[in-house]
């Protein structure tokens, strides 16, 4: 797991250095009557969503309501890093390793994701994480897509999101969410 985190950090650092070698100014440096607007490096977002757990103890999938709170730091308009948190708002049973049942009681998911913005508001997320729960905790890896739709001139956005979490030695989930974000 630590090798993955180190490789991710090294790759993010290398990519940031490579993208910083451009000779032209960043598109985020806009002018407003001769004054430069600084690129807002920080972003915070509040999300509401649902997490699809594919197989519960009865062999049926279920949708679990969830809240998310994200903090992101953008090095430039293309690359960033984010701390993403999700709280699943329900107690549920999952089937693990054949017939073993495991109770999940309001699990909290924390991830540290590399963020890549290849085109306009599209953001690709990838990173390691940890699910904290009173019965048993799990390491996980998250892959996600988010699309930031700007609202007005003050760096607010709407952000529909979809992401996939795979927990080691446990279960996988799909989540969809809609959030409101603010850059500062």
Name its key features.
8-stranded antiparallel beta barrel; 13 strands; Porin; mainly beta; 184 residues; two-stranded antiparallel ribbon
Provide structural commentary:
The chain is mainly beta. The chain has a single domain, classed as Beta Barrel (Porin), CATH 2.40.160.20. The protein is 10% helix and 60% strand. It has one helix and 13 strands, in the order H-E-E-E-E-E-E-E-E-E-E-E-E-E. The chain has one helix at residues 2-19, and strands spanning 31-32, 35-36, 42-53, 62-74, 79-88, 91-96, 100-105, 108-119, 122-132, 138-147, 149-151, 156-167, 172-183. An eight-stranded antiparallel barrel has the order 3-4-5-8-9-10-12-13. A hairpin with a 2-residue loop joins strand 1 and strand 2 (35-36). The longest helix is centred in the N-terminal third of the chain and has 18 residues, at 2-19. The radius of gyration is 18 Å and the shape is elongated.
């Amino acid at each position: 797991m630590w090798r993955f985190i180190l490789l991710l950090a090294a790759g993010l650092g290398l990519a940031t250095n490579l993208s910083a070698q451009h000779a032209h100014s960043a598109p985020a440096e806009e002018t407003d009557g001769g004054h430069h607007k600084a690129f807002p490096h920080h972003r915070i977002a509040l999300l509401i969503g649902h997490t699809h757990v594919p197989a519960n103890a009865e062999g049926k999938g279920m949708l679990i309501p969830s809240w998310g709170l994200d903090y992101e730091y953008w090095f430039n308009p293309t690359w960033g890093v984010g701390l993403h948190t999700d709280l699943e708002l329900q107690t549920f049973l999952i089937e693990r390793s054949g017939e073993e049942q495991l109770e999940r009681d309001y699990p909290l998911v924390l991830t540290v994701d590399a963020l890549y913005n290849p085109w306009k508001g599209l953001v690709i997320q990838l990173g390691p994480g940890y699910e904290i729960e009173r019965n048993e905790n799990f390491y996980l890896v998250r892959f996600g897509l988010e699309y930031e739709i700007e609202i007005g001139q003050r760096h607010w956005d709407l952000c529909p999101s979809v992401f996939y979490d795979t927990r080691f030695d446990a279960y996988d989930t799909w989540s969809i969410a809609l959030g409101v974000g603010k850059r500062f």
